[in-house]
Please model this.
Amino acid sequence: MDTDALRSSIARRDALLAAASERARRYLSGVADRSVAPAQEAVSGLGRLDFELPDAGIDPFEVLGLLDEVGSPATVATAGPRYFGFVIGGTHPVAVASAWLLAAWDQNAALAVMSPVAGRLESVALRWIVELLGLPAATAGAFVSGATMANATCLAAARDAVLSRSGWDAAALGLVGAPPVTVVVGGEAHTTVHKALGLVGLGRDRALRLAVDEQGRIRPDDLPELSGPAIVCFQAGNVNSGASDPFVPLIAWAREQGAWVHVDGAFGLWAAACPDLAPEVAGVEGADSWATDAHKWLNTTYDCGIALVRDRDSLRQAMRADAAYLPPSDDRDPMHFTPQSSQRARGAEVWAVLAGLGRSGLADLVRRTVRLAQRFAEGARAGGFDVLNDVVLNQVVLAIGDDTRTDAVVAAVQREGTCWCGPTLWHGRRAIRISVSCWATMDADVDLSVEALIAAARAG
Ligand SMILES: Cc1ncc(COP(=O)(O)O)c(C=O)c1O
Model:
């Protein structure tokens, strides 16, 4: 780019940002009224974006136009009120708006010296989260890309801590020659816990699996004796049923065994922020580490998980990085608590959403979505569906007739477009998984979606 072109780009920057804002607002204002799944023609049309990289760059307004005119129709309407797939919520307006401003700020949150504001907001957001979830006040935390990395971050801290108690410096020496670490998980541990165990060298498949009940909760009886360094992983919020492990007896057992207790609470941990639902995760504060997500139930933009560790030094020792050019600092430098160095200011967006919701707004978001999940289950049951789980959080598992019929209903509902929900397997039976996780979902959205399911079942 020559100097004149550069000057012209800078001069047109305001107009470009205004155009992006205009297009984004138009997109969001239509997102509740369109098919939740994109039309097949829109997906086929994506070929228009798949061209040889041009030698001379395309005018930025044209780039934006292509993204919006070709890309927007091919999106899945996860930002809308009737997306019930996976557990991925819809972005809260405060999150979208603050993410725009944060992109303009261009802050690298690795070090406080790179961005005092990002560092400060991250610390405040972590303090609020610890308070909201009722965790021990000294709990340290880190913002990472999602619950998968939050699990990996916590488990790396756990690995180093339990081995160090056995006199082995795992951070320095790795696992080659280390005393074996016993790992225990529930039979319904999320797949990303196994992935995270693999990433930190503890093996995807070598953990001892504890028996679970019909809701996917670990049975707190007949628990094994453990010896040597040990890590046990519990769960707040089963990805299908929403059920949480009985933490009080399980953590008491784990403590007797001298084990590190980790909890995967990607979405379920947020039940602790709602007084009516906190009993679902009673005792969870007794663990040593917790993984959760902001991009699920807290409705931030994606790429926002949170690792929380009771013992600050265990997290810092596992994640610290030293180099002559890095400033020695007593500040809380984020890069010494996370696997990554350079990082966007995730904590600043979480700060904005929490500030915008407040304590009662967050409790209301959790309470309301759980009530809507229960409404979904009641409507579906009245329409002839089997409800396969106790709807204790925001998750509903449905089935109708045999596996073939259930799968056909899922496919028909996705095609029809009123709502979107995905398939799963629950106790060997094909099922439909509904997750109500979006701030914008209202009773009418649930009712419309139940009608769509019933209509699909009748047509099939
Ligand atoms: C219980 C549980 N753990 C971990 C994850 C992984 O989260 P992420 O996609 O943020 O990495 C999920 C995602 O649904 C989950 O439900």
